[in-house]
Amino acid sequence: MKKLSVLFVFTLLMGLLIACGGSTEEPAAPTEAAAPAEESAPAEESAAGGSKTYVFVPKGLGIPYFDTANKGAQEAAAELGVEVTYTGPATADATEQIQVLNSLIAQGVDGLAISANDADALIPTGKDAMESGIPVVSWDSAIGEGGRNAHMNQADAEGIGKVQIEMISDLIGGEGQIAILSATSTAPNQNEWIEYMQAELEKPENAGLDLVTVVYGDDEDEKSYNEAIGLMRTYPDLKGIISPTTVGIAAAARAVQDQERIGEVFVTGLGTPNQMREYVKSGAAPAFALWNPAELGYLAIYALDAIATGAIEGNPGDTFEAGTLGSYTIAEDGSVLLGPPTVFNIDNIDDFDF
Ligand code: RAM
Question: pLDDT-derived band of residue 2, with 50, 70 and 90 as boundaries?
Fold first, then answer.
């Protein structure tokens, strides 16, 4: 009896959440964000062969990079005949992301594809999901081992670190002070790339580059902009800013432009062509790199579906088909590599639209 009434209250609560409705476009508060159930098929229906509902979760809503990744995820959904809901925390915050995920697990969705705000903090959440029969893949920013079935890696982390040091070295003529403007201090992907950048700086060919500091803009435009201005004030001789985040690099380039330091301070890192076009042309950020986020989202949904439908178990060595991208094999460390990054500059920037 008691069990029944608990169930009733839970159902009522979920009903209320659903009625509130979660916009998939506006940054949502945690409770709102946890309401993609309006599009979710109940778990039993899926088990009986009905259409599956997966949830594609970015680090934070309202970031163009993730919106583009979602476009790829939706394309995969259309091809596979499944439903993919896009929801996540309003800001790139691990605690908020965990709240959103807990609600999705309680709703019994059919699979989660997550870009993690913290590798370790999300492990117990990922475990809970998997123990409830919900497969988990991380993409873009990995959940630590044990908290996901597999991770979709956008490009080799060492290569991402290396290309950013190469670009800044080329831009400032191999000599001078540089700083890194990152996303959040807990971001698994940025932290790994920064480690590789630091290793790269130890090499004799980079002896002229002096990394003065690493600061964090939390993948928020205004905070990143202010941090970039702070860097230029604190280090008047600063020659370069590397920002391995699409939010930070655009904000830093704008700051250099606004401070009229074009030609004195060069920005590079990881950005999206549509956000960076203006700064490539102005000279504030003449070169930057990235992979195609839409392809990453597309790959994540194909991998999740392969696991959710039992086509593969998600173990190292398993091979699955990812639509137009072809077939992929899960590596020994549980990751799947999308491919090499592209460097964008004045010669090719107008060939891309994302
Ligand atoms: C931001 C996010 C994302 C990262 C890109 C490069 O959009 O931090 O996780 O992969 O930058």
Answer: very low
Per-residue exposure over 312-348, b if at least 16 CB sit within 10 Å of its own CB, e if not:
bebeeebebebeebeebebeeebbbbbeebbebeeee
| Alpha carbon distances (Å) from 230 to 127, 210, 237 | 40, 18, 13
Q: Please name the residue whose Cα sits nearest to atom 5 of ligand 1.
A: 245
Q: How confident is the model at residue 245 (pLDDT cuts 50, 70, 90)?
A: very high
Asked if residue 242 lies in contact with residue 194, where contact means CB atoms within 8 angstroms, the answer is no
Over residues 28-32, the mean pLDDT reads 33
Average pLDDT, the chain: 89
**What is the rounded average pLDDT of the residues 223-249?**
98
How far does the centroid of ligand 1 lie from the alpha carbon of residue 3, in Å? 44
- Residue whose Cα lies nearest atom 6 of ligand 1: it is 245
Residue whose C-alpha is closest to residue 65's, from 209, 203, 235, 189: 189
Q: Tell which CATH architecture fits domain 53-154+292-338.
A: 3-Layer(aba) Sandwich (3.40)
Q: Give the mutation target among 57, 97, 140, 249 for probing the ligand 1 site: most ligand atoms within 8 A of CB.
A: 140
Q: What is the CATH number of domain 157-290?
A: 3.40.50.2300
What whole-number percentage of the chain has pLDDT above 90?
Answer: 85
Ligand 1 mean position, distance from CA 115 (Å):
9
Domain locations in the chain? 53-154+292-338, 157-290
Provide residues with CB under 6 Å of ligand 1: 59, 63, 65, 115, 140-141, 183, 187, 189, 219, 245-247, 270
